[in-house]
C-alpha cells in the first residue's frame, strides 16, 4: 500500500571496511611524506547534502551524518561531530580506529596540536576547505610548527576504487510565477553590490540557482545544480557547468543572458583575471581555497565576504511567500492524514519506523505535487527519538509500540519547501513525558508569539525557546531554528534562531521554530513549525516591530500536554492555532480524517 520513492533505508555505513581503508590511507600519506590528513564532510561548495562522490568521510569512517570532520595521523585518528550526532557517531564508527569527539568540547586543530609531533606535515584537499578554515588551522598549529600541505589530488579519491561519478542531473528553468522575479532583475541587483571590485565568484549553487532562476538534480533532496559562476561588473555573467546537464532549450534560454563554459575553464579564467590584477569577491563560507589561491597566486586581489545573494535570497518576495503558504496547506493536509492514520494504526502493532516513513511519503505523493522530500525522514521511535538527526535503516529499524514516536519530515514542491516535526505518544503519556513535552511546547509558543524590534537577531530570541526547559534544569544541543529556501535548501542562511544567529531578522524571511528535549536511551521530543517574519502594527510603538506568521499547519498531540503548566496566553495561542489548522485543512481531507482532526484540535 505504501512505498518510498524519494528515500531509501539501506545501511550506508561502511565501518566494516574502515580498518583496511585507514591503513591504505596511512600508507599513501607515508609515501607522500605526510604525517596526517584532514577529512571534512564537504564538497567543493560546502553543501550540506553532497553528491555520493564527495562522501569521503563516510567512505573512510562509516559515519553518515550531514556534518563531521576527521583528522588522521600516523598512529591516531579522531572524528569530530556536533551535538546532533554524538550518539549516532558511536553507533556507526569503530571507536578503536577513530576517537569520537564532540566538536564543541575540542576543536580538530586543538586535537592536532595535542597529538601531532612538532613540525608535522598535514595534507589537505584545497577544493573542500575554505580559506577561512585553513587560516584558522594554520594559526592554531603554528605553536608546534605544524605545516599544512595542499594536495593536487585527494588521496581518498585515489584509493576509492568504486567511487561514484560526478553527478549530471538535468537543469530546468524555474518559472517567474514561482521565482517572482526574472533572472535579469536579480543579476542587476547583485551587480549593484559589486561597487569597488571587478567581479564576484559565486560558489554556492543555491545562490547561483536562485540568481539565474534554474534548478537542478545533482544532490539528494535539494534541487540544485553543482556549478560555479562569475559575475563581472560589466558584461555577461559566466556559468561554469557540465554541458551534459543542459538540454537544448535550457541552454538556449540561459545563453540569452549569460555565457556558458565547462567547469575546467574556471581555473584558467581566474588565473587570467589575476594576471590583470583584478579584485574579486569570494564567498567566505563556500569558496574553495583552491580558487581563492589561484587568483592570488596570479597577482589578483581576492576579497572574502558574505555571498552577494545570501540576503536577497533569504528575503522572499510576494510570489515566493504566496507559494510557500500554498505548499504548506497541501503539505499540512498530507501530514494530517498521516497523523490520523498513525493514531488508528500504531496501537494495533505491526508498524515500524520504515513503514511509517513510507506511509508519510505516500500521503505526500498523493497530493500530486511532490517533487521530492526535502531531507531523509527522521522516523524515530523510543530511544531513537533521542537522536536529533536519526536516520532509520533496514539494520536499525524498530517496531513501533507503546511510547514516543517523533517524525521530522519535509517536502519539495515547485512553489515551496516544507519542514515539520511532530511528536506523538502511542498509549498513555507518563507524567514525566507530559512535563517534558509541555516545556518544549512552551518554548515553541514563546517563539511563535514573540514580538521584537527591527534589528533583533535570532541569537536574541533563542533563549525564549529554552526558558521553560532551563527552569527544570534541561536544555537541547541544537539551534532553535534555521532558515528555509523557496524550492531550494531546507536549511538556508544567513537567518537562524540560535546562539550563533547574528543576522537581523527581516520581513519575508522563513525560519523554523523547533525546540526539543532528548532523554538519551528513552525518548526525544521536538515540535517544529515554519514561520515567516512579518511586520507588526502596535499602537504607540516607537520602533518598527516584527513578529511571526505561522506557515506550518498540523495539530500537536494534546495527549502529551499538561495544561496546568501552560499560562492563559499560551493556552489561547494553542487553541487559536488549532482552530486555524482545523478551519484550513478540514475541506482538504476525507470525512474520517476530518472527524479525527476535530478531536485532535479541540480547545483545552
From TrEMBL:
This is Aminopeptidase P family protein. Residues 21-152 form the Creatinase N-terminal domain. Pfam families: Creatinase_N, Creatinase_N_2, Peptidase_M24, Peptidase_M24_C. Belongs to the peptidase M24B family. The lineage of its organism: Bacteria, Pseudomonadati, Pseudomonadota, Alphaproteobacteria, Hyphomicrobiales. It is an enzyme of class 3 (hydrolase). Residues 324-534 form the Peptidase M24 domain. SUPFAM superfamilies: Creatinase/aminopeptidase (SSF55920), Creatinase/prolidase N-terminal domain (SSF53092). InterPro entries: Creatin/AminoP/Spt16_N, Creatinase/aminopeptidase-like, Creatinase_N, Pept_M24, Pept_M24B, Peptidase_M24_C, X-Pro_aminopeptidase_P. Its EC number is 3.4.11.-. Keywords: Aminopeptidase, Hydrolase, Metal-binding, Protease. One of its GO terms (molecular function) is aminopeptidase activity. The keyword Aminoacyl-tRNA synthetase does not apply. The keyword DNA-binding does not apply. Residues 544-604 form the Peptidase M24 C-terminal domain.
